[in-house]
Write a structure and sequence with these properties.
There is one protein chain. The protein has one domain (about 30-350): 4-Layer Sandwich (Glutamine Phosphoribosylpyrophosphate, subunit 1, domain 1), CATH 3.60.20. It has twelve helices and 13 strands. It has helices at about 5-15, 45-70, 75-85, 130-140, 150-160, 165-170, 170-190, 195, 200-205, 270-275, 275-285, 290-305, and strands at about 30-40, 105-115, 120-125, 145-150, 215-220, 225-235, 255, 260-265, 310-315, 320-325, 330-335, 340-345, 350-355. A nine-stranded mixed sheet has the order 4-3-2-6-5-1-11-12-13. Strands 7-8-9-10 form a four-stranded antiparallel sheet. A hairpin with a 3-residue loop joins strand 12 (about 340-345) and strand 13. The longest helix has 23 residues, at about 45-70. About 50% of the residues are buried.
Amino acid sequence: MNKLFVLPLILLFSCNNKPIKAKVEVIPYAIVIHGGAGNITPNNFSKAKQEQYKKVLNKALAKGYTVLEKGGTSIEAVQQTITVLEDSPLFNAGKGAVFDSEGKNRLDASIMDGKTLQAGAVAGVSNIKNPILLAKTVMDKSKHVLLSGIGAEKFAEQNHIQFEDDAYFYTKRQADYLKKVQKREREESLQSSASIYKGRSPFLLGRLGWEKYGTVGCVALDKNGNLAAGTSTGGLTNKKFGRIGDSPLIGAGTYANNATCGVSCTGIGEYFIRTLAAHEVSNLIKYKQLSAKEAIKEVVHTQIDTLGGVGGMIVLDNKGNVAWDFNTSGMFRAYKKSTGENEIAFFKEKAVGKLEEK
């Protein structure tokens, strides 16, 4: 062998006597939540009220984060987080749900597994303490995705889901708001619809009081890189005719796919249904290679806003990147990542602060 080639070969083998370790990307586990978008401003929320909301959001986030921290699944984290929010009278979900036109609380919820694309949802159910638990039971113990009304309630009974009487769901705040909305509705009926609506729903411009907020949602990414998302709501105050919004509709109000992201929405559901808002965010990430932040901005501020809709979204992508956006004055929102990053915010610009340590 030519001596000129021997020395380089000796040096090559002597320098590579240790195995080369491939660089492994570590994806942080994370969780992000929302408590609804709407007329949320410092003027509407005293410092004491802000502390109440901050306390519950912190409790919910800590619950879900602990599941992830201990190696639990994203589905379990989403379920447990939303259960905490449903148990609080502060939000339009579970215990604090709004009343429909008949003075009844009718609840919607959905949950989706980003690994398998399995999903479960319920719509228009009454007296179910935690609709998110029923949605997950639909996913786990039925062949279906969405059950509604009396049928869903029968399914809940068969699977030992907890019921509560009407008194459990009563809050004076929501009862008073129903009266306020119905009074405005009667006043509006005396006027010409042409002069009132001008192409946009009265719910949006405050004609019937756009003070709505409180739909809750959660997206989580676990240590195994699996995403899950869930949403729960009481819908719109004074809703009629069995109205169902986007929250229980997979692809509209909730979506999760390990290939892209998890999404939970809040706002006037009709616009999120018409744009398939949650799935659209996933599509923009997949096909246009937009970031989560760019995708959510496109859907909220271009597609939904152009139609005249209002609301917001939270997004967590498969790399652990958190994004949120909304076209209202505020949205209750918070997140925590295994990297130590965390934030809790209510209003348009300024964050309320960091989350409390457990």
